[in-house]
Amino acid sequence: MLDDSYNKTDGFTLIELLIVVAIIMIIGAIALPQYSEYRKRANDSAALAQIKEMVRAEEVYYTENGAYTTSLNALIQCGFTQDMNVTRTRTLIDKTGTPSAVAYQLTATHKNGTGKVYLWMSDNGGLQ
Predict the structure, then answer these.
(1) Global confidence as pTM
(2) Residues paired with 86 in a beta bridge
(3) Dmax over Cα atoms in the chain, in whole Å?
(4) What is the pLDDT of residues 45-70, one digit of tens each?
(5) What's the distance, CA 58 to chain centroid?
């Protein structure tokens, strides 16, 4: 008499495994770009945090010295911690672009972000 358990199949067929792999690849193809955009937006948030920290340090410096600075070392002494992935500019100009000792503009953008540039104008309401 033949044993019926010998004809019984255990495990998965090759087709079933291929279908599972294909589904995983489709999910990955959808999720990976979304994750990449999420990281870029998070890096933009880091640039925004840098500009806010620069503003705080500029105001501390102004309180202590009666003038603003464009010196990064002066801002570091006032508690600013620079992120090497953020490109920053600091200029002592007012909202019309005229050099000024009582107004400043700051910009910040993250090297791995979306390319968004944050602009802070001290005499025009702050973040633009």
Answers:
(1) 0.72
(2) 110
(3) 103
(4) 999 999 999 999 999 999 999 888 87
(5) 22
Structure tokens at 53: 């920290």
CA torsion angle 102 93 124 110 (round to 10): -120
Ordered domains of the chain (ranges, CATH): 12-127 (3.30.700)
Q: Which residue has the tokens 């933009």?
A: 44
If you search the block for the tokens 């672009």, which residue do you land on? 97
- The radius of gyration of the chain's CA atoms, rounded to the nearest angstrom, is 28
Q: Kindly tell me the burial class for residue 113, based on how many C-beta atoms sit within 10 Å of its own C-beta (0-12, 13-18, 19 or more).
A: buried
Question: Can you give the three-state secondary structure of the chain, one letter per residue?
Answer: CCCHHHCCCCCCCHHHHHHHHHHHHHHHHHHHHHHHHHHHHHHHHHHHHHHHHHHHHHHHHHHHHCCCCCCHHHHHHCCCCCCCCEEEEEECECCCCCECCCCCEEEEEECCCCCCCEEEECCCCEEC
